[in-house]
Design brief:
Blueprint: E1 11-16, H1 24-40, E2 42-47, H2 49-55, H3 63-77, E3 85-88, H4 94-105, H5 108-112, H6 115-123, H7 132-135, H8 137-146, E4 152-155, H9 160-177, E5 190-193, H10 221-229, H11 248-256, H12 259-271, H13 276-302, H14 305-333, H15 342-355, H16 358-363, H17 367-385, E6 388-390, E7 395-398, E8 403-412, E9 415-421, E10 427-433, E11 439-444, H18 446-452, E12 458-459, E13 462-469, E14 475-478, E15 486-487
Parallel strand pairs: 1-2, 2-3, 4-5, 8-10
Antiparallel strand pairs: 6-7, 7-8, 8-9, 9-13, 10-11, 12-13, 13-14, 14-15
Helix pairs in contact: 3-13, 4-8, 4-14, 8-9, 10-13, 11-13, 15-17
The structure holds iron/sulfur cluster.
Iron/sulfur cluster is lined by residues 233-235, 242, 244, 247, 249-250, 265, 269, 274, 276, 279-280.
């Protein structure tokens, strides 16, 4: 579905690994909810084939086939490509790019502490999961979500913690590269908690393909009957009183039977007035009645490979368009080269080189030009000792991630007038050039800014600072007419906060 401009629907993002046909646990735990969400939200659902490789890298022969099976299950369950975007992760390469960029800023310890990192290594014994891809999969997940600037990620209660890492990555990225807190480059998504009905596997363990205890969404009627018939129940003996909550068959009734039938088997089970055989026959009827139309829709879609291709192509186009919008902003925010900026950068480079020739400053036609050359040179000189990284809005970032605002002004009759955009910086560097072309740099550290920042006058979204001379000719910072001047000479040449 095309994302219409001004579309007010909140955006949702979720995905599934293509490890085979989906089972009823996948259906009631996520897919059924997705089908509802597509009517109220702008939904992006993807087949997470790269994620499948993080654990199944040694045998990839079924990934492509499984991707089709998952898509068919989705369509059978009622996901409608006219209402939501369905796509395959590996077709939208921007996911990999964002993952790579996130990997540059994410501390290793964040990934090592993800609970599933250790859990899965223990559960999937016999597999070497000490791989770079497996450690980094939560970061790939973060890229999957954040690249769509999703408002919500639908998850069950037990998975809410996973989204927290994604939020942390977004915050860290924004802290480094966003212009300001009020204009973050990457949106932090919220968790959309999904009530997940309890559904045990046929052996009373958690339903899972690897346990061989699942009923598939695509199972035919005889297979469903057979699996339910062989299910372990909560009443080993006919005279035992049981509970549908603890029984896989009872769970199926709770999900698929109407109220009357559920009431009947609940009473019968807890009072031991029905047999498990009867209960299973009724559960088979209820389950099959629900899955019948899903199977039929699935069969119909499977008959039309052209339609599947079209759905994937359309979904990829739609997803890639949104992903590319985010990536363009991310690349720019991170200061990577784009073709449009080559000419400007070449000009700046030549300015910096020319700075080393004093005649260049003397030859500058305007004061502004001269200051620009001075600033470029100052940064160039400082960076030899304290490397600074320039971002696009005259803010420099130190190796320790501090944002440094750098501003220059030439002496006027009132002193040095600085006027710059109101954005948060940890350190403010003011470069003042006097009439004798003598350059002074004042680096105002965090403690100074914390104490004084609110007192700086603001006008048209700009911060205004006037530096004047005191009676003895020393420079002093005046906040506003009427305010006590704050002496800043103590900070002259104090570059230590930049370390
Ligand atoms: S009566 Fe039904 S719900 Fe109760 S234990 Fe038997 S099969 Fe399970």
């Amino acid at each position: 579905m095309e994302n219409k401009p001004g579309n007010p629907r909140p955006r949702v993002l979720s995905g599934m690994r293509p490890t085979g046909k989906l089972h009823l646990g996948n259906y009631v735990g996520a897919l059924q909810n997705w089908v509802k969400l597509q009517h109220s939200h702008e939904c992006f659902f993807f087949i997470a084939d790269w994620h499948a490789l993080t654990t199944d890298y040694d045998d990839t022969s079924m990934v492509a086939n499984n991707s089709i099976e998952v898509l068919l299950d989705w369509l059978g369950a009622g996901l409608d490509p006219d209402l939501c975007t369905l796509f395959v992760q590996s077709h939208v390469r921007q996911h990999a790019e964002l993952h790579l960029l996130f990997s540059m800023i994410t501390p290793l310890s964040w990934l090592e502490r993800v609970p599933s990192y250790k859990d899965q290594q223990e559960n999937l014994q016999g597999k070497d999961l000490l791989t770079y891809g497996f450690l980094g999969y939560p970061l790939l997940q973060a890229a999957d979500i954040l690249i769509y600037q999703a408002d919500y990620v639908p998850v069950g209660e037990d998975q809410a913690a996973h989204v927290e890492l994604t939020r942390e990555v977004a915050r860290r990225f924004n802290q480094f590269f966003s212009r300001s807190k009020s204009a973050p480059l990457i949106k932090e998504p919220q968790v959309l908690l999904t009530a997940t009905p309890r559904l045990l596997g046929t052996d009373k363990r958690k339903m899972s393909k690897s346990y061989g205890n699942s009923i598939l969404l695509s199972d035919e009627s005889p297979q469903i009957a057979e699996k339910i018939k062989n299910s372990v129940t909560d009443r080993p003996k006919l005279t035992d009183h049981g509970s549908p909550d603890r029984c896989p068959v009872g769970n199926l009734h709770q999900i698929f039977s109407d109220r009357e039938r559920l009431e009947y088997i609940t009473q019968g089970c807890t009072r031991a007035t029905i047999t498990c055989v009867e209960c299973k026959v009724l559960a088979t009827q209820s389950t099959d009645a629900h899955l019948g139309p899903i199977r039929e829709r699935r069969r119909e879609k499977a008959r039309d490979p052209g339609l599947l291709t079209e759905i994937i192509e359309q979904g990829t186009r739609n997803a890639a368009r949104v992903a590319e919008e985010t990536m363009a902003a991310v690349r720019e925010g991170m200061g990577l080269l784009n073709l449009a900026s080559v000419a400007g950068l070449m000009r700046k480079q030549s300015d910096a080189l020319l700075l080393r020739t004093p005649a260049t400053i003397a030859d500058a036609k305007t004061d502004e030009e001269r200051w620009e050359i001075r600033v470029a040179g100052w940064i160039d000189a400082v960076s030899l000792t304290f490397p600074l990284k320039k971002d696009r809005r005259e803010v420099y970032i130190t190796r320790k991630g501090r944002k440094v605002g750098v501003h220059a002004a030439g002496e006027s009759p009132r002193g040095w007038e600085f006027r710059f955009e109101d954005r948060k910086v940890n350190v403010l560097a003011l470069i003042a050039e006097d009439k004798d072309r003598c350059l002074r740099a004042y680096v105002l550290p965090p403690r100074f800014l914390e104490a004084s920042s609110k007192r700086f006058p603001r006008n048209d979204g700009k911060v205004e600072i006037l530096v004047g001379k005191d009676a003895s000719g020393n420079a002093a910072l005046h906040l506003e007419a009427g305010c006590e001047p704050v002496p800043i000479q103590d900070y002259e040449g104090d570059y230590s906060p930049l370390q």
